[in-house]
């Protein structure tokens, strides 16, 4: 009886141990064998003279924002690091043909990439939330990422047709090139999952190695999509200036010239205030667009002054003697008009009487309107030509 009980106990013990052994998967056994004596705080160097070669690439998924006023440049992306750790190798056939192991990053040695040009504060990319893939030959792949915010030097000279070059500059904090070497297998940025931005267009990307500090720079050349600025800012101001120019077509007797020109001037001034709030504010450069908009405001102000002068001439006392140069100019213009037609014998007497007649202030005002209209029109056309020359 006792012998039967002993046999039953031994049988149950065997079943329990066998079941407990089956509860351990091949991956558990592999993990325990690899990391039982592993020191994650030590560099995976074979010897002190052989640095760890860290292959680096960058996957860009999109531009989050670029604020030209503050210089903040944010992108969605991740770094892909690849290196070898001689301490983590195994034979796949001995562990159920496991050829890859994925574990949390806090279980192995990982580099500590740090941004050198952060927007807010200096911080590491590692945070214990990005897994590490390990191959059977000891090759590790780690891809930390997220929203990366850096400071970008902004040049707004040619806004809104400006091109900006922003960088994501990083290094492995605390390691010299004798310990860790950052290697670039390719100078191209991976764009497989890139999404376009509504305001900014990505022109070009590249990766370069900054050898003297053992760092890597991801350069991104971007430019603003100018359609919105041209449609909502530049064209309305141009149309208002041209509209103000036609004040000289209004009859002086209507009495609306001065009020019309001042109304358009105030509209331009208010609109330029709204435009100025959206222009990049920086003390290093001033956008050329600001000068062009200021020139349009000056032209509109000059038009108002010319309108007042023209009205003063038109309503001047006819008994006042007209300045002699104005008389000569008015007579010259009158002769040019009559010379366009074939003169008859009867017209000669009329022409003589006309030349001898006193030139009125209304005629001077009419000539003045035509002169300043042409002058302002030439100024506007010249500013437009200069605008395209500067921006091209």
From TrEMBL:
User: How does this chain sit within the bilayer?
Assistant: Multi-pass membrane protein
Where are its TM segments located?
Answer: 229-252, 258-279, 291-316, 371-391
User: Does ATP-binding show up as a keyword for this record?
Assistant: no
Q: Which UniProt keywords apply?
A: Membrane, Signal, Transmembrane, Transmembrane helix
> What molecular functions are annotated in GO for this chain?
extracellular ligand-gated monoatomic ion channel activity; transmembrane signaling receptor activity
Intracellular or extracellular location(s): Membrane
Q: Which residues form the Neurotransmitter-gated ion-channel ligand-binding domain?
A: 30-215
Residues of the signal peptide? 1-19
Q: Which PROSITE patterns match?
A: NEUROTR_ION_CHANNEL (PS00236)
**What Pfam families does the record tag this protein with?**
Neur_chan_LBD, Neur_chan_memb
Any one GO cellular component localisation term in the record? membrane
Q: Give the top-rank taxon of the lineage listed in the UniProt record for this protein.
A: Eukaryota
Name of the protein in question: Acetylcholine receptor subunit beta-type unc-29-like
Q: Which gene encodes it?
A: LOC111106923
